[in-house]
Structure formats: structure tokens, C-alpha cells
Amino acid sequence: MFSRYSFDITTMVRDVNFIELRFQSAVLYAAQQSEAHTGYQVPPNCPPLVQKGECHVNFIRKEQCSFSWDWGPSFPTQGIWKDVRIEAYNICHLNYFTFSPIYDNSAQEWNIEIESSFDVVSSKPVGGQVVVAIPKLQTQQTYSIELQPGERIVELLVKINKNISVENWWPHGHGNQAGYNMTVLFKLDEDLNIEKSAKVYFRTVELIEEPIEGSSGLSFYFKINGFPIFLKGSNWIPADSFQDRVTSDLLRLLLQSAVDANMNALRVWGGGIYEQDEFYELCDQLGIMIWQDFMFACALYPTDRSFMDSVSAEVAYQIRRLKSHPSIIIWSGNNENEAALMTNWYDIPPSDYPMYINDYVMLYVKNIREVVLAGDSTRPFITSSPTNGVESIAEGWVSHNPYDTHFGDVHYYSYSSDCWNWKLFPKARFVSEYGYQSWPSFNTLEKVSSKADWSFRSKFSLHRQHHARGNTEMLYQADLHFKLPQSTDPLHAFRDTIYLTQVTQAQCVKIETEFYRRSRSEIVNGEGHTMGALYWQLNDVWQAPSWSSLEYGGKWKMLHYFAQHFFAALLPVGFEDHDVFYVYGVSDLHSECRVTLTVRVHTWSSLEPLCSHVTGHFVINSGEAILIYKEPVPSLLRRCWNCTRQSCVVSFYLSADSKPLGPTNYHFLSSPKEAVGLQKAHITALISQQGDTFAFDLETSAVAPFVWLDVGSIPGRFSDNGFLMTEKTRTILFYPWEPTSKSKLEQSFHVTSLTNIY
């Protein structure tokens, strides 16, 4: 599935031609390949029963999750999924064209390495010139070439005019995504002209793994154009179970939604596909950094000659196709396979370990890594995620503890512990997977279900849940801090439960992400300097419960609205430790920031804040997370008219020159289910049109936590949602994704807050 094939049909072409393709079942082929591998088992044989999937997907180079995953169905596709064409030529043909901008540190100048492959079918050499032009950089260079018959590669080095200032490509939130139009014209004998045009972007990337003062181990962070950048984002899975349904509009919607939530990075996960060209072009334009896995996930793999040859061809092709994209900042060999091997997911006997480790090194190091290094010298390569980076290399490419918080990246999941307890999270260098499940909205589910399905324990709800005990775990986590829905009406209870799973997921991921962001500048007990938080997962392949923040089709869950805030460039983060309330100021800005912090205490029973405290001025430096406020909770409560933990909630925000900067954050002093004085809020909305957007003027009768605005199936998003409403009025904007009207919005509008589900 991941390679491009070319067949010479010269001797077969007739006046009228038919192409007949005969496909073998992918499921049967995978089973036969496994059966033929008689020497030893290559686990896992089959996915867990709850996934309702097919077996032996590791024996076929197809989208690994198409045989099922813990968030998706088993729809193993069949057929050709890219364009098919006949190419005719009698002199020569350009097979491929690829390039890499490279910064020469010693000369302090940019060069572009261009590689072109030709199939020369002429019986004599083909001569000519190559003209490379980048008008905006006042760069034009001409080269003479002579192509001998056969397969020929032409390599050119283009030096960029040193007198012209080159504008760098930056990730979203850090600068512009500047790019330049380049044309490459091959003017060859017999008036054969071949022209290629491309967008060239200039940026450097470094993966920094070096000692940290006060900590054993090594750092693990990225520098773009020499500037350390905290990666904020999520993990990307295929946008649909059937790729022919993935339109340009859908890709743009999903990727724009990532940027709109202040993300600057996505990890293209290794159980899906190498995405289509347009995906990477959009990421280049939007400033989304891509951590690109190779397509191997949660399995061991065979290393027989035919499989290895297939992988070599796949990797070489994908490197050529993708390496010119500035958005891709790292290649990673696989998803979780080092961890699967070294923490023994598959109960491998100790005596067999050397054989499986040897296979692992053969595939990811001696094969994939070698092909990557030969094809691309401009970005880092790691063998796995999670991995300990250079420490894994030192231990023979597999580390005894791939989840070591002192090296590399980690993945972290825990569904049985309390997600509000930040002390459980790994204070790691980089966290590339973490998350919690929720259900998508009723409107999304309604399209693929009927009335009999609309309960949390229906056959439908169990069938669509592919994660063992997933529905039970969601309710367990919700019950720790919230009252479970109490309606006796089954449909009402189902809708309320969906809402509560989204509240719980959003709050869990918020608390965890804020912990990672405030850990970027400190070392505590030898751990810290966290420089990346990519939650699992961004999007969905179908309508089902999953870890996503965007539903199938692109509707924002509550988590995605929360991400807008917890990924903000400037953010106050509040937490408690030993009965003391702390606030950190976190900055991703490129310059220092002089601000004040306002801390307000609200009572659940009143829309007027009880008390407010403004700090003096302090400076948050560029790329820093620092402590800016601390106060024992008992003294905070005494200061505010003898509040109690159960009767009050804290909000806080940063300001410069008396103007709020960034989002207002909040901190619960107790679980909302213990709240005293919380009343049922009656919330109304007056809708008005303002150009292409709509304003929702909200008014509430009481303090309302987790206010959720919904307009059913009308495509679009709100400027904010799932928020804590502590003031009587608030205006929220709605951005429609296709034309709609005030009357349609009024008919579809529904508002929920926490007390509505009791």
C-alpha cells in the first residue's frame, strides 16, 4: 500500500488495451504469510476480541489499523488507492524530483540540494541544460548535463544569493510560514523541455539530547531555526476508514481546527498511513510541525528478505516524496514496538529474546535507519516512540526501560487512577501520547444509529467501543468528581452521559497538559524540563467513543475547546500541593512579558466575585514557566469572607497595562459533586448575525460550570465552549463552516451546564 509501482509495458501495448487487476484478499494473504513463517511466531497473532478485528496485519504492508484498533473498525480495504496512468516517452522521462534546503553553518548561507531521476530510453546520450530559478531570492543558476542511456540520477547544488535576506519558515505561533516559488527547467536535446515547480521553505531543525544540570539523563527537545520550541498538539490518525472519502475540504477543516486550538505539532501515528501530499502542503502553510512515524505499530514484524526489500523500497519512496516539506521535523521508526518488546507485551520466553531483539535491530536500524540516512540528512531519526533516544542506542538500540522519564519521550495512560491528581503524571522530557476517552455528540451518533441504540449499555454502544472496559472506565473517572446523570428518561440519560464523558475527558487532559507545560523550566527530584505534550488523539475514523478531541466529520468536542486555552502562548496554570495554591506563568513567546496576575474567588451561589487580588508586576521570560503566586488555601478562604472549599471556586488571569492577556483559568477547590450552593442555571441566548459570524449573547441566572453550547448538525465552531460562567452575561461567537441562518441556529440551539444533568 505504501510503495509506488512502475511496470514497463512496451512489449505488450496494442492498438486497444485492457488492464486487468487480480487481487487476493488482504486478510487471507496476511494469514498465509504468517503460516509460511514457520521458524518462530511473530506476535501478536490477532487483536484483542473487543476490537472485533482480523489477524496477522503485521505480515502485510497495509494500513495497520484497517484490520481494527482500539478506536476503529476492521475494514481491510482492497484495490488501488492512488492515481493510475500510462506514461509514454521515446527520449527520456523524469521519474522523480526531490530537494532539500540545507544551511551551511560555516559559510552561513543556504543551499538547495536537488535530486532528479531520469529513465533515458534514447540509444545515445541526451544533453542539455538545467535552469533553476527562485525569483524572490534573485537566484538563477544554469547547469549543463549529459544523461547516459539507462536510469540516471542528476544531483545539483543551488547556492542562494548571500546578499538577499532569506525569511525562515516558522511553526504556528512562532513566526511566518514564509516560502519561495522555485522552477527547475530541463532544456534537453530534440526540443524536450521538462519543467517542475515547487515551494521551497527554509528552516533548520535539531533534536537536542544533552546533559541537564541537577538531573541524570539527557534533554529531549527540538530547536527550530536555533530556537527551542515546546511542541503543543496531538496525534493524527487516518481521517476516514476509506481514504477515497478524505476530501481536501476535510483535511483543511481538521488541520485548521488544530491551529485554531493553538497547536503547533501533530504526530502522524505509525498504525495509519503516510498521508497524501496535500496533508503535508497544508501543514507547511499552517505551520504545523509533523513528527512522522513509519508505518509499524504495536507489533513485532518479520525480517525475511522479501519483507525487508519491500520495506526498503517503501521507505526510500516516502523519503523522496516527503523530505522537501519543512513541516516534517523528525522521522520515527515505529509506534511502541521498542516498549512492546522490552516490557514483554507478548510473553516472550527469556531464551528467545536475543532473536527478537536481533529482528528489531535488523528492521529499524540496519534497514529503515540506513535508508533514511542515505535519503535525508536534514532532520533527526529515532527508532521508536516511546524511546530513550541516545540512551536506547547505547543499550543496543533497545532500552530496558523505554518509559524512563530521564530520556527521550514517553507515552502515559492510566484509567483507574484519579486524573485530577497531577502527582501521578510522568515529569518526563517529552510526552508524545496521553489521553482519556469520551463519546462523540448525539448528533454525530444519530446518523449511524436508531432509537434502540440510544443508551449507554445498548448493543450499539458496546459494539462501537473497541477498548476493553472503556465505557466502564469513563463512568468510573466521571464518578470521582461528578454526580452521574439521574434522569429516568433513557434518551435524556444517554445525552447527559455523553455530555459528562466530554466534560471528564476535557478536564482530565487539561490538568495533565497544564502539568507538562508548567514543567518546562524546572527539575524536581531529578525530573522535568518537559518540552512536548501531544495528547492522544486529534481525530476519528468513524462515529464511536475514542480519545479524540474532534469527532468524525470535524465537530469539536469539549476537549478541543479546552485545548485552545491550555495550549495558549501565554498561560497561567494553577494547582495545589500540600494545601497550598500555586500559579505558574507559562510563556511560549519569543520576548519577555511584564504582567500582573488577578486571582478571584467566586462563591457557587452568587454571580458577584467574593474577593479579588492583583499581584505586583513580574516578568516571564521567553520560553519560561515560573512560579508567580502561592498562598495557603486556608488563608485564601479566610481572606474571602470565610469561604469553604465546597462553596467557592478560584479564577485567575494575566494582564498587561490592565488588559487581560490570554485565557482566564480556574481551579476547583473541591470536586464539583461536593459543591455547596450550586444552583440550576437558566441560560438564555440572543442570536444575531455579524457578517459571516453569529453572536450568541448569553445570560445566566446562576454560576454555571461547563456551559455547553450546541447547534446540532449545523457545521461550525464557537469561539469558546464548555466554560465556567461566573458572570451574568457573556457573548460567544459562532463561526459556521458553511452558510446558515439565524433562524436555523435558533431552531437547533441547545445549552447544557453541569446542574442540568442532575
TrEMBL record:
Residues 581-674 form the Mannosidase Ig/CBM-like domain. One of its GO terms (cellular component) is lysosome. Exoglycosidase that cleaves the single beta-linked mannose residue from the non-reducing end of all N-linked glycoprotein oligosaccharides. It comes from Trichechus manatus latirostris. GO terms for biological process: carbohydrate metabolic process; glycoprotein catabolic process. Keywords: Disulfide bond, Glycoprotein, Glycosidase, Hydrolase, Lysosome, Signal. It is found in: Lysosome. Residues 222-360 form the Glycoside hydrolase family 2 catalytic domain. The lineage of its organism: Eukaryota, Metazoa, Chordata, Craniata, Vertebrata. Residues 678-756 form the Beta-mannosidase Ig-fold domain. It is an enzyme of class 3 (hydrolase). PANTHER family: BETA-MANNOSIDASE (PTHR43730). This is Beta-mannosidase. Its main location: other. It catalyses: Hydrolysis of terminal, non-reducing beta-D-mannose residues in beta-D-mannosides. Residues 1-82 form the Beta-mannosidase-like galactose-binding domain. Its EC number is 3.2.1.25. Pathway: Glycan metabolism; N-glycan degradation. GO terms for molecular function: beta-mannosidase activity. Belongs to the glycosyl hydrolase 2 family.
